[in-house]
Structures are given as structure tokens and as C-alpha cells.
Design brief:
Elements lengths: L11 H13 L6 H13 L23 E5 L2 E5 L6 E5 L5
Antiparallel strand pairs: 1-2, 2-3
Bound molecules: zinc ion.
Length: 94
Amino acid sequence: MIKSDSRKKISSKEAREKIQNFFSSLNNRTPKEIKKIKRLAMKHNLKLKDNKKNFCRKCLSIYKNPKIRIKRGIKNIECETCGYISRWKIKKSY
Ligand SMILES: [Zn+2]
């Protein structure tokens, strides 16, 4: 049986798995947890990529019911917690 110890140093592979796990279920995640995951990703030089679009850049809250507006290929997502607007370019791959 493998016992996981969160205090010990983890490998990049373990870090990536941890991050994937984290983003596979975002319900009830707190800004504190997101901060931790972000720090973990930075430490291991891992990119959060599209996962970054799931939470507010400013207050780190998970988007539950954000206001989304699309204008000229830019997606504006307004955080319902702090009102910060994140902008994402929409890929024209389709
Ligand atoms: Zn916010």
C-alpha cells in the first residue's frame, strides 16, 4: 500500500498528476487551494493552460456562473465574485 505524504517533495510527474486531478473536479475548490496548485505548477514549470480559464485571475475563485460576452474573437469572462474581467482570445481552429 502506498501512503502519500503531502509534506515530502514530489516529482514533476506527480505534480502534473496532482494538478490534473485537481482540475478534473472543480466543485468546492477554494481560492486557497488554487493558490497552492498554482504554486505547485510554477515550482515544476508546468503550464496550467486551459485550466486557467476555470478560475478568476484576480481573486482565484472558481467560476460558477460568470457573465460571458464574446466580441470580435475575444471572450470576456466577468468574475461574479470580484467583478474582474478576464479576456481570452478564441482560437480560430474550426
Ligand atoms: Zn474574481
